[in-house]
Design brief:
Layout lengths: L15 E10 L2 E11 L4 E5 L6 H9 L6 E6 L2 E2 L5 H7 L1 E4 L11 H7 L8 H11 L1 H5 L10 H13 L5 E5 L7 H16 L3 E6 L2 H7 L2 E6 L2 E7 H5 L2 H7 L3
Helix pairs in contact: 3-6
The structure holds adenosine-5'-diphosphate and magnesium ion.
Length: about 250
């Protein structure tokens, strides 16, 4: 699973730039002037404990929450005031925490829901998704509830791919899954990354996520406390003590 952490290219422009955004829920300030960058072809992980602000950051990038200050720029265009719908059309997607699969709908209907932004390419995208996840084809008429937790996570990723994204954001994909299943989820993210997708991941499972990602940011109560290549974060004494159980 080890990734090459030297991939970050100084020559390329970032695909995504988050510049000093602040986000509040009423009087709770969840993000305090957060800045991150994601370059094309990277896997970047946001590491942080419960309540650190990971979900808020991903939802603010997608456009679910509007920052009170700061900017979000995707492929050179400012998107922090754009609608979710527009941002999905522009190439962003979010696989939400808890996966957001519709349990009482079939696998196929779940996938088709992901295609509503991009109906023109629906058949092509469906064929591609079935190639990556053959079990989804075999079980396309099955009700999503009957899938295992890991399979539902894969369905949620597959559904996101139906919108033809450039940047896939995934919120805590490993939550509640057995270690061996977590490995296969991260393997899929690495495969998708090699196919050309850029990935921004939020995780509490720091060790596995850093082994999958090229770079990471550590989020602590709404601020970035540390960032760098995964190999450096894996060896950082503070990260080891706080997140790697060392
Ligand atoms: N809908 C909400 N209303 C009020 N406070 C919220 C809401 N969602 C998150 N928060 C608060 O914002 C902070 C960041 O939460 P969140 O982004 O969910 O963190 P994480 O995803 O890292 O667990 C926490 O203090 C949390 O309690
Ligand atoms: Mg969260």
């Amino acid at each position: 699973m080890e990734q090459n952490s030297t991939l970050v290219s100084g020559e390329k422009a970032p695909m995504l730039t988050v510049e000093e955004i602040s986000v509040s829920y009423g009087h709770i300030q969840a993000l305090k002037k957060i800045s991150i960058e994601v370059y094309p072809q990277e896997i970047v992980v946001l590491i942080g404990a419960n309540g650190a602000g990971k979900t808020t950051l991903l939802s603010s990038i997608l456009g679910v929450k509007t920052p009170s200050s700061g900017k979000v720029v995707f492929e050179g265009k400012r998107i922090d005031k754009a609608s979710v719908d527009r941002n999905v059309r522009a190439g962003l997607c979010l696989v939400p925490e808890g996966r957001g699969v519709f349990a009482s709908m079939s696998v196929l209907d779940n996938l088709l829901l992901g295609a509503h932004h991009n109906l023109a390419n629906k058949d092509k995208n469906l064929a591609r998704v079935y190639e990556w996840f053959p079990f989804l084809y075999k079980r396309k008429d099955q009700i999503a509830r009957t899938l295992s937790g890991g399979e539902r996570q894969m369905l949620a990723i597959a559904r996101a791919l139906m919108s033809d994204p450039k940047l896939i954001m995934i919120d805590e994909p490993s939550l509640g899954l057995a270690p061996i299943i977590v490995n296969s989820i991260f393997d899929i993210l690495i495969t998708l990354n090699r196919e050309g997708y850029t990935v921004l991941l939020a995780e509490q499972n720091a060790f596995k996520a850093l082994n999958c990602a090229h770079r990471g940011y550590v989020l602590e109560t709404g601020t970035i406390s540390l960032s760098g290549p995964s190999s450096r974060l894996l060896n950082d004494p503070g990260v080891k003590a706080a997140y790697l159980g060392a």
